[in-house]
Every structure is written in C-alpha cells, then in structure tokens.
Amino acid sequence: MAKQKTTTKTTKRYRYSSFKSKIDDLRIEPARVLTKRAHDYVETSHLLASFDHWKEINLSAGFTNFSEEIERYIQTLPQILYHQDKISETLIKYIDLHDDKSLQPLLEVLAQFCHDLGPDFLKFYEPTVLSLIRLLEEAVKFESTEVFEWGFNCLAYIFKYLSKFLSDDLVTTFNLLFPLLSHSKEYLSRFSAEAMSFLIRKASSKNLEKFIVFSFNKVDNIEQSNLYEGILTLCTESLTSTQGALHSKSKTILSIIILSSLKSDNQEVTTSLVCDIWMNISKHATLENLEPLYSVVWKFR
Q1: pLDDT single digits (tens) 158-170
Q2: Does 195 or 8 have the greater pLDDT score?
Q3: What is the dihedral of CA 226, 98, 132, 220, to 10 degrees?
Q4: 118: exposed, middle or buried (C-beta count within 10 Å: 0-12, 13-18, 19+)?
Q5: What pLDDT sits at residue 57?
Q6: Strand partners, 114
Q7: What residues form the membrane-spanning segments (predicted)?
Q8: Looking at the structure, do residues 143 and 204 belong to the same domain, yes or no?
Q9: Could you write out the DSSP letters of every residue in 160-179?
Q10: What is the pTM of this model?
C-alpha cells in the first residue's frame, strides 16, 4: 500500500495595505493640481471608463440594475456634470443595499465620479462618507475582508482627490469618521485614523491646531479607550513616514500636539496621550531621525 502523504493545515491571513500605502500608490490623472477640476483637463470621463470596464465583467443583478438605471446619464462628461445629483443619489442607493456581488464596481465608479467632479463633489461628500460608514459597520457583522478593502480604498481615493479642500476643515471629517474612530473593533479605528492622518499632514498649522484641540477635548477620560486609541494612532501616523523615518512636517505637527495638550480641558489625559505618541514614534524612528524632535520637546520643558 502506498504511503499516504500527510499535509499540514495552513491558513492564509488577510493582510490589509495601510491607507498610507494605498494613497501613496494612487495616481491622480490627468493632473496632480487639485485646485482645478479634473474635467478642466480631460475630454473623457473617468467614471465612464470605470463603468464600461465593470459592465463587461460584472453581471451581478445589483450592478446590472444600476447600469440600466444610470447608463443614459453618463455617456459624456457634460452629461455627468449635468446629472450629478441623480448619479450621486443612485450610487448611494445601490451601495446602501450592501450587495457584496456588486459593491466593488459601485465603489470604484463612486471614486471615479469624485475624480471627474473634483471640488464639485464636495456637496456629496457628507452623504457619501455616511454611506461608506454604514457599509463598513455592516461589514463587521459578516467579517468581509473584501468589503473592508473596497470601502476603505474608495475612501482613500476620495481623500486623495479632495485633500486640498478637506484639510481646510479637519473637524468636519473627524465628526463624520467619529463612529469608526471610536469603534470597538480596533481595525476600524486604526484604518480610519490612518486615513485621517493623511489629511492632517496636508493641513496648515492654524487648521491643524484647531483640529487637535477639538479632538483632544473629545477624549474626556482614558476609559474611553476606543477613541483614545484612535486619536493615538491618528497622531502617530501623521508623524511617521517610511520605516525608521519621520514625516517632513513632524516637527511642526508634534509642536502643535504638545501645545494643544497644554490647552486641553483634561491635561491628565492629554499628557498621557502625548507620552504614548512619543513612545510610538520612538519605536518607529531611528535615533538619527528622532533627534531633531528633542528640540521640540525641550521648548515645552
């Protein structure tokens, strides 16, 4: 009798690419200057290109129904601009069905809709983010790693395309993301914090200080561990860069964080938070890269 081959049981662990990696990998075409609208530069639509791609390969009932309802409104860029309210309403309606067979194309079409509209998308920003939050909270129940990736990837695109404008008012995005930043599931809090940290780096010192003071005052006590950890990750991610390195704005950001902690209503908590932030960046950065930040800390001795 032939000897039976024995095999060991293996499992594949899902590895999520951080928001930092996703955003760094995104290519903003046709121009990286987001002060002007994308359709000022192109003759074709990114939404239409994405829609045509998915229409060929996704035959799910949900996306087919969406296609039949929306296709006549998106054949040209002028059409998309004219029917933008209808398109936004229809996208959110179908995304809110949470049909996992059609979510990936819907979310990619949504991201490219934002790409086409540029700053004109801002009026749809809040309902869009709220729809994504509903989706991600629902995904927790059935633990769909694909939905997490599609949803956060879509959010990453939107943040990238609108970063210049969103960084002017970080409090609005923070309030929208609050259910995720303070979520009991650590990965939702962490991914949301990573997303928000991208916008923090884009903010001016004035806007950043306003936001940090606001967020620190949200943490009333350390027992609110979910929000505490979310803000800790938020600040840590905004300061760090690639392995062993710190972000080019780390001195400015750290200075504002320390100053804001001194203005906080609860300095016991914020002092603890600043210490934890320092511990995190100390573990991340090399001694050479960390050394310039000692001068920042020394100013507040």
Answers
A1: 998 999 999 999 9
A2: 195
A3: -20
A4: buried
A5: 94
A6: none
A7: none
A8: no
A9: HHHHHHHTT-HHHHHHHHHH
A10: 0.80
